[in-house]
UniProtKB/TrEMBL annotation:
GO terms for biological process: transmembrane transport. This is ABC transporter permease. One of its GO terms (cellular component) is plasma membrane. It holds the Pfam family BPD_transp_1. Keywords: Cell membrane, Membrane, Transmembrane, Transmembrane helix, Transport. It comes from Nonomuraea deserti. Residues 94-291 form the ABC transmembrane type-1 domain. The keyword Cell membrane applies. SUPFAM superfamilies: MetI-like.
Amino acid sequence: MTGFVVRRIGHTLLVLFCVATVSFFIVRLAGDPVQQMLPPEATAEQEATLRASLGFDRPLPEQYVSYMTGLLSLDFGQSVFFHRPAFEVIMERLPLTVDLAVAALAFTLVVSIPAGIVAAVKRGSATDTSVMASVLVGQSTPAFWVGILLILIFAVNLQWLPASGTGSPAHLVLPAVTLGLYSAAMIARLLRSSLIDVLGEDYIRTARAKGLSGFRAVTSHGLRNASLPVVTVVGLEVGSLLGGAILTEQVFSWPGIGRLTVEAITYRDYPLMQATVLFLAAVFVVVNLIVDLSYALLDPRVRLS
């Protein structure tokens, strides 16, 4: 078990190293970052000042070593637009993104788990067909369109919920539903498929033969054994909810990390762009690490292997 954990942590660190290296060189291969950050009418003196402040006047190997060394102390560089450390700007926006991701994940699980269980137990029935039709709609509808539609219905026409901004739990409802709808549909479909396979196993029939109710057989025996692929997808979706909410945050003017990434691109703030890319990659790989380690708790075969 210790070797398994060490290997997974090693893979995580290797991925982060590769992401940091690639993001560092892509910014420089795209052209002179200083010329892209400044307006066309900028003078040569302004270019030289900015280049020196960002350290772009030093040899490339020296810049790379300095950048990687700074990452060890969480120094992502100085934001050109905000005139503050990039890590500090990200940490300032992180709580709002976490709030949105947690709300979206809660909506995802509350909707997907009951839907997947009902569809699997009622396989082939009208209920199963209705659930699967809803899942298909949820997976095929673009998030930005869902967000605009929810704003028109619940904020503009009915005026039940705010259309944008932050400040109260009500502001979370529409963006959380928008962000979690696709994930809920995908997890419900996967859980249904996994449960259908598990419910045909001998130990489920044995449990039913011993007098266990259908509900207890599904929840006590079937659900846990069908959860491994679901845990994988939920883990990936947590990373997506934390790092992939760019469209949702833009539609609802939610000032999280997704919107911060768009602002960094808009303002050509390359140090902040590198920081957000690396931070989002770190979220994905850390969540994947947690999912890998959770396998050992859910399936004894993983511990034995």
